[in-house]
Amino acid sequence: MAVGKRKKQAAAKPAANQTTTLRHxxxxxxxxxxxxxxxxxxxxxxxxxxxxxxxxxxxxxxxxARGNVVGGIENVRGQVEPKVVQFSAEVEAxxxxxxxxxxxxxxxxxxxxxxxxxxxxKKAAAPRRAPRKPxxxxxxxx
Length: 142
Description:
Layout: H1 22-102
Region (Disordered): 103-142
Organism: Lysobacter enzymogenes
Protein name: Poly(Hydroxyalcanoate) granule associated protein (Phasin)
């Protein structure tokens, strides 16, 4: 049995007179609606992603700003604190002779440490009352 070559039939020629019908318009409208819906959902997803990225960026910027402020404050504090200690030492040194003449140097005593509060005594729990019983039901008068 020999298998012979089959010749493909030529594709049917499209009709020369293709008219647009209501069905064509209906199908085109459905396709357009489907594309619009898909793009709207994708656009909403992209917008949500951009919002998340923007939130992350704002958080990072706020964290960097906070770090810069804290670093600046620590720097200023490191410069100011020794000056304050030096100034207070100078003031005490200059006032020491005046306080000695007035006799006030010996009166100054260091403060006693505050005592912490004592914990409050625990109160005994109040005995539970029995639940109130509902009033007896009465028949209505007609």
